[in-house]
Q: What sequence folds into this?
């Protein structure tokens, strides 16, 4: 079974409008982390935003926000005021295992990625 | 701002040849990873490395793969006998326990096996 599901292979959005990229996840862990990365056509992976499973507030980073709905196991990325430079592949990822600093080696978990959503911003 | 670097950016090799992909993680980071991305597909975990040993590996990381931290700065991925299906982008990543909410990715090495 897919651990990370991104159901939108491609999305279009008009410049300056907001867009939501969907991500659902599957885990039996109580503690986990959710990530979004951007991959432009040049190929590098750019970290956008992180949400810990115990974080009560939705994460925000500038124009990016993560709509975290734990009961639904969804972690949608919202990009406000889209720009042409936002055109890229967007990957949702999850790291299972504890996020707490108290855990030995707590940050060594590998990331599990979804298949990505290709976002195209139209002028 | 510190960053993960990878060399070469593009490697072309003949099937059956050995390749070594190099990474320099961020200097104070303790956890290192290799991922690969076959063209048009999702990023897949290969291996994680901590305290000079492999801490986790995926099914992809079979006997033809190995990793090494030969000195205090480099982190290498060796593919012993390349196959056509090894053609992919290979990403190195690292993170520091104190900043566990992000894995920093390098720019990737595009490996083409002919």
A:
């Amino acid at each position: 079974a897919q651990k990370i599901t991104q159901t939108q292979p491609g999305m279009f959005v008009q410049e300056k409008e907001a867009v939501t990229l969907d991500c659902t996840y599957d885990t039996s862990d109580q503690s986990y982390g959710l990530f979004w990365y951007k991959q432009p056509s040049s190929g590098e992976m750019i970290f956008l935003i992180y949400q810990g499973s115990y974080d009560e507030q939705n994460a925000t980073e500038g124009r990016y926000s993560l709509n975290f709905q734990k009961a639904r196991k969804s972690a949608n990325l919202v990009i406000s005021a889209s720009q042409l430079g936002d055109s890229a592949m967007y990957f949702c990822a999850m790291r299972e295992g504890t996020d707490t600093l108290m855990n030995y080696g707590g940050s060594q978990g590998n990331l599990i990625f979804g298949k990505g959503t290709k976002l195209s911003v139209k002028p | 701002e510190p960053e993960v670097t990878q060399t070469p950016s593009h490697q072309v090799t003949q099937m059956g040849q050995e390749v070594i992909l190099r990474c320099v993680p961020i200097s104070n980071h303790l956890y290192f990873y290799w991922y690969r991305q076959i063209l048009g597909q999702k990023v897949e975990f290969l291996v994680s490395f901590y305290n000079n040993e492999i801490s986790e590996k995926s099914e992809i990381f079979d006997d033809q793969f190995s990793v090494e931290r030969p000195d205090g700065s480099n982190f290498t991925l060796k593919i012993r006998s390349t196959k056509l299906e090894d053609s992919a982008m290979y990403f190195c990543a690292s993170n520091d326990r104190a900043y566990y909410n992000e894995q920093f990715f390098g720019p990737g090495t595009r490996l083409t096996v002919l």
About this structure: Chain A touches chain B at residues 33, 35, 37, 43-47, 50, 52, 91, 93, 99, 101, 105-116 (CB under 8 Å). The longest strand of chain A covers residues 88-96. Chain A has no helices and twelve strands.
